[in-house]
């Protein structure tokens, strides 16, 4: 099938990651994947949630929000608490990024990754994880440089991408138009070593065979490999070397 933007089925959207685009965060990254743009900022606090006090380990959590005109029509601000969708995405970001760290080495600290969607064109949660990892790695590098940490608690890379079946064809990195018409939509989080952190798949209109799912995961593995390479490249430009 012909994709709207002319990409091959196994091709990512144009990707750009910019370090420290603005702000005061210990680490920040603007990730752009096609029309999707997410600002990810890592903030370090010298404290942990109550249930972790005295355990000598840290915590990483995620927050996510859509700016009102990040979407084609205005999205209302969530003034009365996060919606169910927002809470689900925040938990996903936190789970994904905690896999990247040794919490004992982080010590009694909390790192919050704020992911604010400036423009949404599909794949905002996966872009948040991929960009959030870069912001997190940058913040940890600076904690080591300042002497706050003796060594970085990073133990592996994490990236995420979407994929799905549209018109019976397996496609990587769905934009909004593809996502809204997909028979199967998946968001997959993967480590640098190829391990799967999370696979979120939902079928609509027809069931998917095991062989079709396996083919989709192969497509995703290739895509996350490219995202991981992009993370390493942009972090290396700031003197940050990751495993």
Write a structural description:
The protein is of the alpha+beta class and 243 residues long. It has one domain: Ribosomal Protein S5, domain 2. It is built from five helices and nine strands; from the N terminus they run ββββααβαββαββα. Strands 1-2-3-5-4 form a five-stranded mixed beta sheet. It has a four-stranded antiparallel beta sheet with strand order 7-6-8-9, sandwiched between helices. β1 and β2 form a beta hairpin. The N and C termini lie far apart (37 Å). The mean pLDDT is 95.
CATH topology: Ribosomal Protein S5, domain 2
Number of strands: 9
CATH hierarchy: architecture: 2-Layer Sandwich
Count the DSSP helices. Answer: 5
List keywords for this structure.
4-stranded antiparallel sheet; 9 strands; 243 residues; 5-stranded mixed sheet; single chain; globular
List the helices and strands and how they pair.
Elements: E1 15-19, E2 27-33, E3 36-45, E4 59-66, H1 84-98, H2 103-106, E5 110-119, H3 124-145, E6 158-166, E7 169-172, H4 176-180, E8 184-191, E9 196-203, H5 210-236
Parallel strand pairs: 4-5
Antiparallel strand pairs: 1-2, 2-3, 3-5, 6-7, 6-8, 8-9
């Amino acid at each position: 099938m012909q994709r709207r933007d002319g990409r091959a089925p196994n091709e990512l959207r144009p990707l750009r990651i910019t370090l420290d685009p603005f702000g005061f965060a210990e680490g920040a990254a603007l990730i752009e994947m096609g029309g999707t743009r997410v600002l990810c900022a890592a903030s370090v606090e010298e404290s942990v949630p109550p249930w972790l006090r005295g355990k000598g380990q840290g915590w990483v959590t995620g927050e996510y929000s859509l700016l009102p005109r990040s979407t084609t029509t205005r999205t209302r601000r969530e003034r009365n608490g996060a919606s169910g969708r927002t809470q689900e995405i925040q938990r996903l970001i936190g789970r994904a990024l905690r896999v990247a760290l040794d919490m004992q080495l982080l010590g009694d600290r909390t790192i919050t990754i704020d992911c604010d969607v400036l423009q949404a064109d599909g794949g905002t949660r996966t872009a948040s994880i991929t960009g959030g990892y870069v912001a997190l790695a940058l913040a940890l590098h600076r904690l080591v440089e300042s002497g706050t940490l003796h060594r970085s608690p990073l133990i592996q890379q994490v990236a995420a991408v979407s994929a799905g079946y549209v018109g019976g064809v397996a496609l990587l990195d769905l934009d909004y138009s593809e996502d809204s018409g997909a028979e199967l939509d998946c968001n997959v989080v993967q480590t640098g070593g190829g391990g799967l952190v999370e696979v979120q798949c939902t079928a609509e209109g027809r069931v998917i065979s095991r062989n079709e799912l396996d083919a989709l995961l192969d497509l995703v593995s290739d895509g996350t490999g490219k995202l991981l390479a992009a993370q390493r490249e942009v972090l290396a430009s700031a003197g940050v070397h990751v495993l």
